[in-house]
Amino acid sequence: MKYLTTIGLEVHVQLKTRSKMFCACAVEYGAGPNAHTCPTCLGLPGALPVMNQHALELTTLTGLMLDCAIAPYCKFDRKNYFYPDMPKNYQISQYDLPICVGGAVPLHDLAYPKDAQKSIATPDKKVGLVRIHLEEDVAKSFHYDTSTGVDFNRAGTPLMEIVTEPEIGSPEEAFAFLSSLRQILLYGGVSDADMEKGQLRCDCNVSVRPEGQAEFGSKIEIKNMNTVSGVRKALAYEVQRQTAELEGGRKLQQETRRWDDASAQTFLMRTKENAHDYRYFPDPDLMPVRTETLVTTARAGMPELPSAKRARFVDQYGVSGYDAAVLADDQDLSAYFEAAAAKAAKPKAIVNWVLNDLLSAVSSAGKGMRECPLPPQALTELVDLIDAGKISGKQGKEVFAEMFGSGKGAATIVKEKGLEQLSDTGTLEALVDQVIAANPKPVADFKAGNPAPLNFLKGQVMKLSKGQANPVVTSEILQRKLTAGEGPGGV
Ligand SMILES: [Zn+2]
User: Fold this and answer.
1) How many Å lie between the centroid of ligand 1 and the Cα of residue 382?
2) How far is the centre of ligand 1, averaged over its atoms, from the C-alpha of 24 (Å)?
3) What are the CA-CA distances from residue 164 to residues 26, 47, 98 (Å)?
């Protein structure tokens, strides 16, 4: 029997604000334990929350980027439960009136895992969203041998929750969804979305049902995933486990599981019986929010989205769709390419240098594009020299390495190394004549119909010019001179 997989994700995104959601404490990753706390984020009695406008703006911007409807007004609610990392015994969140409703995340080909890019089940798929709401993050517990410590630096930092429709059909699509979403968040400057720092985390809901069955299978949730590859692995494991259960004639029940990366398995955490009732109610300390001015501000900050950038690169610079996607994948890389291509005679030539030579040089230097020692204009200069036939492509590689290491300009290096190609036809013709006169045997062989000596003769011209003869022009002149006067009455 065939089984269908249904996946929905709840993604938590830490917003890139300077201060927390409801107090003025700094948001800083890696600060000493409890360095950024105050009565509000410690939940002390009587402390009052004040909304962070920037967090509201960033959430609105996310909604606009993902084509959501922005609610005319939204409100904050208390989600009640006890946990040591949440000092108020409730979390401020949004229940029935979130900021953003609907919307979708378009999945692009390069967002799929590399090994799955050739077998994408539904190209150009868009995964629909249910909602995006804003809440505060909780503190972080650290478990030691005999005790547990709580660090409240994270408590109260702005957290955006993005909930998808159950429209993701495979672990690979879930991977593509997270990568595509992450790219858009980075484009909007909404979050650094660094999963290692816990800035992007997700809960996965996955169920399996026999093909032909209308209702979804039992929803099983995997909590707190913090790598995109982990999400793919955990989902693949669950799909296999649930399918095996169903095939063995066993029933699945709604439950929450946790993924263990080391053993590559999921483990049961709790079943539906002890599901929470959070008893939401509107937070009486916070007024509802009208979103009109937030929308105006967010609209002004709308970036060019990755899909638009990819299309524009193809149109404007004539690069391939694949190259455009690779360039647009990284904002620093695409900015570099644009700066170099803007003044280049042939932007298409620039893209090859950027994607091959430059990227590999930057990565072997252990740097990011932002620390690239070669300014874009320098690359343009080099590519234009090659394009104009001043130096060969091979010499270009040499000049490139030197530029990357020394920071000198291409023209300066060409001059210093005496690399400039000899393209002057007058001079080249004289050299060719000299070579023809000095090598009667190969010349005769060639004229007798053996093409092999041509390369030898060309090599002689190169040698005579100390490697500076333009090989293309040299070939042309040689062929012309050797075939001229052929036929009856010829030499
Ligand atoms: Zn605080």
Assistant:
1) 53
2) 6
3) 30, 35, 14
Q: Which two tokens stand for residue 380?
A: 């343009």
| Alpha carbon of 51 to ligand 1 centroid (Å) | 12
Q: Are 445 and 420 in contact (CB under 8 A)?
A: no
Average of pLDDT values for 247-260?
93
Query: Does the pLDDT at position 134 exceed 60?
Result: yes
Find the Cα–Cα–Cα–Cα dihedral 317, 320, 326, 327, rounded to 10°. 0
What is the 37 CA–ligand 1 centroid distance (Å)? 4
pLDDT tens digits, one per residue of 316-341:
999 999 999 999 999 999 999 999 99
Dihedrals phi, psi of 397, to nearest 5 degrees: -60, -40
Rounded CA gap, 153 and 146, in Å?
A: 23
Provide the pLDDT for residue 490. 40
Q: Is the pLDDT of residue 264 over 90?
A: yes
Predicted TM-score (pTM) of the model is 0.84
The alpha carbon torsion through 395, 396, 400, 402 (nearest 10 deg) reads 30
Between CA 244 and CA 5 the distance in angstroms is 13
| C-alpha of residue 152 to centroid of ligand 1, in Å | 9
Task: Output the six-digit token pair for 440.
Answer: 């009667």
Q: Which domains does the chain have, with CATH numbers?
A: 3-298 (no CATH), 304-416 (no CATH), 425-483 (1.10.10.410)
Going 80 to 86 to 92 to 96, the CA torsion angle's sign is negative
Distance from Cα 455 to the centre of ligand 1, integer Å: 77
The three-state secondary structure class of 241 is helix
Cα(59) to centroid(ligand 1), Å: 20
CA 18 to centroid of ligand 1, rounded, Å: 12
Residues 84-117: pLDDT tens digits? 899 999 999 999 999 999 999 999 999 999 999 9
pLDDT digits (tens, 9 = 90+) for 175-187: 999 999 999 999 9
> Quick one: pLDDT at residue 104?
98
Cα-to-centroid distance, 158 and ligand 1 (Å): 12
pLDDT for residue 121 is more than 70: yes
| CA of 42 relative to ligand 1 center, distance in Å | 7
Distance 43 CA to ligand 1 centre (A): 9
